[in-house]
Structure formats: structure tokens, C-alpha cells
Design a protein that fits this description.
Chain lengths: ~260, ~400
């Protein structure tokens, strides 16, 4: 089963992480990790605390540089390790942080405006005038994430769940090829979780989505392939039922 | 379609209206063009205050909007002043030298004139050799370009080095202090080519306009300063009102996050830093002809710290806040330190405002920081606007 996934995705892998390792003060946060994801795929990454989930995202988005290994992205096989955070973002990788981080002093509309896929150089932005096309696109995205009524509110006034959706909306506005989502369901009510699940599934129809999540119930609802990380490397990969039946995974989660 | 930014920002029109009224009022009361109810020296104080308001706008752009607490902006202000000062001093000295040589039997050669100018200007620092940096001092056009070019280049190189290495927060503030201190120390040296601690003087005398009285020239400079302030205000309001303004505020609030949206934070900071240095340079170039003298003490670190205090008291992140802060504090400062404020005799001790003004200012700064973190401009907001960002 695991082998099949690899065969299928290696044909047209969007992101290819090969033998990556990184240590912080002697602690091996990521240990010879290899990982692949295809162009239109939803994948959940689970693992106990300290398994290296967030560090993995930091490496892919350029926040952390690994000690060794390769990270390739897209059709041209871009070497992400040579790019800065902003270049990686422009190449088509969007990231949602664990804590909702939106620009609280600015309106929902302005947050989405900044995220819209456009020329990001200072002089282009200086000349930018928000046209009808931009407005329509922003309204569409706001409707999609359920914030149509909140467009002109200051985003700091939104509820926790709404901020999470705004951040997902900002990711959609960026129109990335790969979306990295860190614990989207944390602190959400049941209804909010369902909405978030739908958003992520819809997003994965046209792009790759990687969701890092603690909550097994949420992962089950996503109904996708699961990669289990442990001590900085891949412990198991496959459907949720498959990996939860794996004795190693049970060991890690329940303790020896 | 997008509404004009002036309609979305009524405060810009209000400000421009008030500034026009102020300028007309000052002209009507002035000695040069009006009723003579206001002394020429007071007109100069007002004109200089307008320039300080302009440099405060530059500070607000870089600090209030983009979150870069630069404590070195008077370096750009001072360099702008030095660049125009070089032409003012050169051209005036040249006029004087030519006039004094006109009575000689043989007409003076160009070389003799140069030497006489050199002796006149650099005699105080023990020499008559004209330093290479004065090569273009004869040309107003080139010195005007240098007013923008020299501070702009300094900001570009400094900013590029600092932002590229991701120096932020208090570390950047310290670096900017070091920059302005280094410039000040360099200028203090006699062989800096800019007359050491003597600085450049006699700048109030405009070459070619020697027939005009200072009362008229002071009004011209008041108009020029008001025009520059109006343009600076308008330009800054335009820059911060659009998407660019949203991005730099986002950099101020969470620089790591905006990076993951694909914005190159370093490039934006550099653009904002250079732009605000250019505004500061223009303000300086208009200020020093009204002050009459510029010396290295003007770019001492403390000057740039005062600038931050003005903007904090006025309310950063709102352009009118910067203007209010600069105008209020600098006018109060010249009132208290100018000897006009009556001393308070307490019997055992006399409170002299010249000494105690600093204490008052410091206290004011502490109180504003504690009880009105949005400054005086923030109080305005509470009165007139509901949504504040």
C-alpha cells in the first residue's frame, strides 16, 4: 500500500524532500527525512510532540535551513534551499501558522488584498490601484471562507475561528501550488471544524495541501493519506486505518 | 472604481486648508509683505517649524508606518542643509570677492578669485586650499541635486547593509545613532572639508538677492517651506493610503508573516527608508537658509532622538500627529529656551526654564507614553473618527 502511493506520486511529485536532517544544539529535530506529495493531493501529517512537524514546515518554507538533504519543488524542480522565504512564497508555497496570524490592525478586505496573487515588488505595489476585478476576487474568497459579511471589519475583532478562516482565505488568495496548514482545527467548535474540513478538501482539488494535525478525529474527517512522523523521520505512511493499525505507531502514541 | 484617496482621507484636505490659512495669515502679519505685526525673526521661526514638521513626517513614515525606529534622521536633514549651504556660502563669498577686486587696477584672474574664495571660506580652519568636495559648489543646480543625492545614497547604502542582515528593533536604532554620531564626529574635524566645528554660516544671505531685505526673503522661505510641507504631506498620505501602505503597516506589525505572503521585507524597508531620508533632506535644505548657520552639532545623536520624541508626542502612525508633535514641541522649545518664558522665583531657588525645559519635555514624553500612547493625534482620532488603525 505504502509502496503504491510512492509509485503514483513520484511520477509527478510537486514537492520532493530527500534525506533532510537538521539539528538544534545537538538535538536532531529532523533525521534523514524523505517525503513526497503530488500536485493535487491532500495529506495529513501526524505525530507526537517533538516529532518534527513544525520544523518540517519551517524547512519547506525557508525559515530553517537543514544541515543536509535536498528539497525540490514544482515542475522546474526548484531548489528551495537556495531561496529566501519571500521567494519561496512567490514560487507557490503558502503557509498557515498554528496560531492564527492575520494583520489585526487592518480590515479583512485589506488582509486579503495583500495576499492576492500579484506583483509583489515595492514599485509595482506603489502603483497598484485596487480595481473591480480585485474586488470581485476578494469578495469571492471571502464568501468561500464564510467572511463575506465581515469584509470591512478590523480583523482583530474577528473570533478565533474566523481568524483561522481569514488566514485560509489569504492562502487561497495567494493561489499557491502547495498549501501548508499547521493545526487548522485548534480551538475550533464542532461546526467550525466541519467548515474548515470542507475548505481544505475543496482546496486540495486544485492544489496540494499538507495538514499538520494533532486531532485524530479531524484527520479522520479529512479522509486522506496520512504520514506519521516520529523523532524527525517518517514512521509510517498510508490511510489512517492502515497507520493506526501499525504496531510502531501504536507504540509511539501509547508509549512503551 | 476606486474613490480618490483625497475623498477617503478628508484629513489631508483639512490639513492643506489649515496650512494655506496659516501661510496667508503669517504673510499678512509679516514685516515683508503685510502689516508688520510680526517680526522677521518670528517669521523665520515659523518657517523653520514648517521644515521640522516635514522631517517629522519623514520620521512618521519610517517609524510610525513601517516600524523602523530610526534615531539617525537628522543625519539626512543635516546633509541636505550642508549641500545647499555649500552653494550659498560659495556663491556669496564669490560675489564679495569679485566686488572687492573690482577696484583693483588689473582685472582678477579666475585663479586669483578662487584663491581669494578659498582663503575667505577656509581661513578659519587654517588653509586656503579648496577641498575636492567643493568642486560643484559654484553650481546651484548641481548642489540642489546633491541635496537629494548625498543623503539618498547614505540611506541607500546604510539601509541596504542593515536590512539585508535583518537588523531590527533596538539594534537598528543603535546603528542609526552610530551613523549620525559618526557623521557628526567626522564633520567636527577641521580637515573634513566642511569647516569643522565652525560649520557653514551666513546662509541667510541669498546670493543674487542681496538687495532684498531679510523680511522679504524670510517670507519667501516661509512659502517654500509651506509648499514643501504640503507636497510632503500629500505624497506621504498617498503612499500610505494605498496597498503599499497596507504592506508597510503589515511589516511593522508582523514582519515574519508578511514574508510568507511573498513580500520582500528588506526591499520595502529600503524603499521607505530612502524615501523618508529624501524628505528629511529637502526639509534640511529649506531649514538651514532660515537658520543662517549649520554646524556638526546639528547632526549630533540627540537631535534625532528629539525627532522621535516629537513624533511620539504627536502620535505616530498618523501624519497629522507628526506635524502636531513637531510644531508644538519645537515652538514650545524655542519659547522656553529663548528666554521669553518667565522664570519662577521660589525664594531659595529660581526655576529657569532654559534649564528646566528639558525636564518638562522629558516628563511630557513619559506622561504621553503612559497615558496617551497614541499621542495628541490619537486624541484627535477619538474625537473625529471611530475606526482607527
Amino acid at each position: 500500500m505504502t509502496g503504491m502511493i510512492h509509485d503514483a506520486s513520484s511520477m509527478n511529485a510537486l514537492l520532493e524532500v530527500t534525506s533532510v536532517s537538521v539539528s538544534f544544539d545537538g538535538f536532531r529535530a529532523i533525521n534523514n527525512l524523505s517525503f513526497q506529495i503530488g500536485g493535487h493531493e491532500l495529506r495529513a501529517i501526524i505525530g507526537p510532540n517533538g516529532a518534527g512537524k513544525t520544523t518540517f514546515m519551517d524547512i519547506v518554507t525557508g525559515k530553517t535551513r537543514p544541515d543536509s538533504g535536498r528539497v525540490r519543488f514544482g515542475e522546474q524542480s526548484l531548489d528551495l534551499l537556495k531561496l529566501r522565504e519571500s521567494d519561496i512564497a512567490r514560487a507557490g508555497i503558502g503557509r498557515k501558522f498554528q496560531r492564527p496570524t492575520v494583520f489585526e490592525a487592518q480590515s479583512v478586505f485589506d488582509n486579503l488584498l495583500m495576499a492576492l496573487k500579484k506583483d509583489r515588488s515595492p514599485f509595482a505595489v506603489l502603483r497598484h490601484r485596487t480595481g473591480a476585478e480585485d474586488r470581485t476576487r476578494i469578495e469571492e474568497i471571502a464568501a468561500e471562507v464564510g467572511l463575506a459579511e465581515q469584509l470591512h471589519r478590523r480583523s482583530g475583532e474577528l473570533s478565533h475561528g474566523q481568524k483561522q478562516w481569514l488566514e485560509i482565505g489569504m492562502l487561497l488568495a495567494q493561489d499557491p501550488k502547495l498549501l501548508l496548514v499547521d493545526e487548522p482545527a485548534a480551538g475550533m467548535t464542532l461546526g467550525e471544524r466541519e467548515h474548515t474540513t470542507d475548505l481544505l478538501k475543496a482546496a486540495a482539488r486544485t492544489r496540494a495541501v499538507i495538514v499538520v494535525e494533532h486531532d485524530m478525529e479531524f484527520v479522520r474527517r479529512l479522509d486522506c493519506q496520512v504520514t506519521v512522523l516520529h523523532e524527525g523521520s517518517v514512521l509510517a505512511e498510508g490511510s489512517l486505518d492502515h497507520v493506526t493499525a501499525n504496531p510502531d505507531v501504536i507504540d509511539v502514541y501509547l508509549g512503551r | 472604481m476606486e474613490r480618490s484617496f483625497l475623498i477617503r482621507q478628508p484629513s489631508v484636505l483639512v490639513f492643506l486648508g489649515l496650512l494655506a490659512l496659516f501661510t496667508i495669515g503669517a504673510t499678512v502679519l509679516s514685516d515683508g509683505y503685510g502689516l508688520g505685526l510680526m517680526s522677521t525673526s518670528f517669521v523665520k521661526i515659523l518657517g523653520k517649524t514648517l521644515c521640522l514638521c516635514l522631517v517629522a513626517i519623514a520620521m512618521d513614515l519610517v517609524w510610525g508606518y513601517c516600524g523602523i525606529l530610526s534615531l539617525g534622521h537628522f543625519a539626512f536633514f543635516g546633509l541636505g542643509g550642508y549641500m545647499i549651504g555649500m552653494w550659498l556660502m560659495w556663491a556669496r563669498t564669490k560675489d564679495i570677492v569679485i566686488a572687492s577686486m573690482a577696484t583693483a587696477e588689473l582685472p582678477a584672474t579666475a585663479g586669483e578669485i578662487r584663491e581669494a574664495i578659498g582663503t575667505q571660506i577656509f581661513g578659519v580652519v587654517g588653509g586656503s586650499r579648496i577641498p575636492a568636495i567643493w568642486a560643484f559648489a559654484d553650481s546651484l543646480a548641481i548642489q540642489l541635486i546633491l541635496v537629494l543625492l548625498v543623503p539618498g545614497l547614505l540611506a541607500l547604502v546604510f539601509g541596504w547593509l542593515a536590512f539585508r542582515s535583518r537588523v531590527t528593533g533596538v539594534y537598528l536604532s543603535i546603528l542609526t545613532q552610530a551613523m549620525t554620531l559618526a557623521l557628526s564626529l567626522y564633520l567636527f574635524q577641521n580637515d573634513s572639508g566642511l569647516r569643522g566645528n565652525n560649520g557653514l554660516s551666513g546662509l541667510q544671505n541669498i546670493p543674487g538677492l542681496t538687495d532684498l531685505s531679510q523680511s522679504v526673503i524670510s517670507i519667501w522661505f516661509l512659502w517654500a517651506s509651506a509648499l514643501a510641507l504640503a507636497l510632503g504631506y500629500l505624497g506621504t498620505a498617498w503612499v500610505v493610503s494605498g496597498k503599499f501602505g497596507h504592506v508597510i503597516r503589515a511589516i511593522r506589525d508582523d514582519e515574519a508573516r508578511i514574508r510568507f505572503l511573498g513580500y520582500s521585507v528588506e526591499a520595502y524597508k529600503l524603499v521607505v527608508f530612502v524615501l523618508s531620508a529624501l524628505i528629511a533632506a529637502v526639509a534640511g535644505a529649506l531649514y538651514y537658509p532660515q537658520a543662517g548657520i549649520i554646524n556638526p552639532a546639528e547632526v549630533a545623536p540627540i537631535a534625532s532622538i528629539y525627532l522621535a520624541v516629537w513624533v511620539a508626542i504627536g502620535g505616530r502612525g498618523r501624519i497629522y500627529g507628526a506635524v502636531i508633535g513637531a510644531a508644538l514641541v519645537s515652538l514650545l522649545s524655542s519659547w522656553f529656551t529663548g528666554g521669553q518664558a518667565p522664570d519662577i522665583p521660589l525664594g531659595f531657588y529660581t526655576v529657569r526654564w532654559v534649564d528646566w525645559w528639558q525636564v518638562l519635555l522629558g516628563l511630557g514624553f513619559v506622561l504621553v507614553t503612559l497615558y496617551a500612547p497614541r499621542g495628541i493625534g490619537g486624541m484627535f482620532d477619538r474625537l473625529f473618527r471611530k475606526d482607527v488603525s
